[in-house]
Automatic annotation (TrEMBL), chain A:
Identification of the protein by name: 2-ketoisovalerate ferredoxin oxidoreductase
Domain of life: Bacteria
InterPro entries referenced in this protein's UniProt entry, alphabetically: 4Fe4S_Fe-S-bd, 4Fe4S_Fe_S_CS, PorD_KorD
Keywords (A to Z) from UniProt: 4Fe-4S, Iron, Iron-sulfur, Metal-binding, Oxidoreductase, Repeat
Enzyme class: oxidoreductase
UniProtKB/TrEMBL annotation, chain B:
Ranges of residues in domain Thiamine pyrophosphate enzyme TPP-binding: 64-202
Top-level taxon of origin: Bacteria
Record's protein name: 2-oxoisovalerate ferredoxin oxidoreductase, beta subunit
Signal peptide segment: none
Pfam families: TPP_enzyme_C (PF02775)
Key words, A-Z: Oxidoreductase
A GO term for molecular function: thiamine pyrophosphate binding
Length: 98, 294
């Protein structure tokens, strides 16, 4: 068994574990590439209410050093829940560019 | 940031749920309260896929993939095993979709409820077999489109009243919850953790691809379902004591129209159909108020 970052590679059949068990987390799967629109936080408007964090299905809202919302673009799938639920409209969805 | 629910995260990002998935959000919120001493059981459902391919997992607790009809009984077996090795504090959790609960898993659910096994049973109800491409289940509401009930013949029957079926087993605790109200869900879980015996949770999980909605409307739809009385939040203790949490029994309900028009699966409905649904919702709401004594 080899590890390439967070990915696990089995080279031979004998490398496989004896039963179906998990050996790593899905964090190798950078779902940010699914995104059509990216949420952008206007930190001047953010009131640190934590509503976007509470409703994010992808654990992609983090807290920055000032306690404001920060988005983890590696995993954010761009569903837009944070922008729709923000009570002060501090998050806007901007089309992703290639 | 203000944290109104536990800050601890027991799920990893990178899971395979669709954008705006209500089911993924529900398990995230549930694990926050249940904590690390939890063993999950998944029958065939969306979560069999969301969790990720072998040998990866997207939850930080042990989990067991099992056959479609056996979610409740597998969890009961895990709890019995945990007792044997003196780890009675382990929360054995069955986490099933509506197909694996309403249709296929109902005998195992009924058996575990009757024996009063000390487990949690969660049904995250997205109102059809979404994982296999939107086929009708007995949880699909009347008038909804699915691939097996096309718009020319939308589902003719009303949704099965599973909560009443479970209540007929007189289980110690059961509740309905929604990922749109995380504080309410957390409060109910904190209460349930202290109870020995069968605990049943019914969670309405909006599904953007299956309901034909925008992913950003997931939370709004959950709230509208509650406010319009389609999915009221309530608790039942010992099958008898009903408590309505939301919406307030003293206020009027929102019309169902707002909830229905947001969803593509109800787009073909005519005025008469909406009226039938509204009458049914009102009737159910009056019945629930009567049971709760308000």
């Amino acid at each position: 068994m080899k590890r390439d970052g967070k990915k696990i590679i089995f080279e031979k059949e004998s490398d496989l574990p004896p039963n179906a068990m998990s050996l790593g987390t899905t964090e190798f799967n950078e779902t940010g590439s699914w995104r059509n629109e990216r949420p952008v936080v206007d930190k001047a408007k953010c009131i640190s209410c934590g509503i976007c964090w509470k409703y994010c299905p992808d654990m992609s809202i983090k807290e920055d050093s000032e306690g404001k919302a920060e988005i983890d673009y590696v995993f954010c799938k761009g569903c837009g829940i944070c922008a729709a639920e923000c009570p002060v409209k501090a998050i806007t969805m901007i089309e992703e560019e290639k | 940031m203000k944290y109104s629910i536990p800050q601890k995260e027991l799920m990893n990002p990178g899971h395979l749920a669709c954008q705006g998935c209500g089911g993924a959000l529900s398990l995230r919120l549930v694990l926050k309260t249940l904590g690390e001493n939890t063993i999950l059981t998944f029958p065939a459902c969306c979560w069999s896929v969301i969790d990720g391919p072998f040998p990866y997992s997207s939850v930080k607790v042990p989990l067991f993939h099992t056959a479609f009809e056996t979610a409740a009984i597998t969890a009961a077996g895990i709890k019995a095993g945990a007792k044997k090795v003196e780890k009675e504090y382990v929360n054995a959790v069955a986490w099933a979709g509506d197909g694996g609960t309403y249709d296929i898993g109902i005998q195992a659910l009924s058996g575990a409820a009757e024996r009063n096994d000390d487990i949690f049973y969660f049904v995250y109800d997205n109102e059809a077999y979404m994982n296999t491409g939107v086929q009708r289940s007995s949880a699909t509401p009347k008038g909804a489109w699915t691939t097996t009930t096309p718009t020319t013949f939308p589902k003719a029957e009303f949704k099965k009243d599973l909560d009443a079926i479970v209540a007929a087993h007189y289980v110690p605790y059961q509740a309905t919850a929604s990922p749109s109200y995380p504080e309410d869900l957390t409060k109910k879980l904190e209460k349930a953790v202290k109870i020995r015996g069968f605990k049943f949770f019914h969670i309405l999980a909006p599904c953007p691809p299956g309901w034909k909605t925008n992913p950003e409307d997931t939370i709004k739809l959950g709230k509208l379902a509650v406010e319009s009385g389609i999915f009221p939040l309530y608790e039942i203790e010992n099958g008898e004591k009903y408590t309505i949490n939301m919406p307030s029994p003293k206020k009027d309900l929102k019309p169902v129209n707002e909830y229905l028009t947001k969803q593509g699966r109800f787009r073909h409905l005519k005025e008469d159909d909406v009226k039938t649904i509204q009458e049914y919702v009102n009737k159910r709401w009056e019945k629930l108020k009567r049971l709760a004594g308000v």
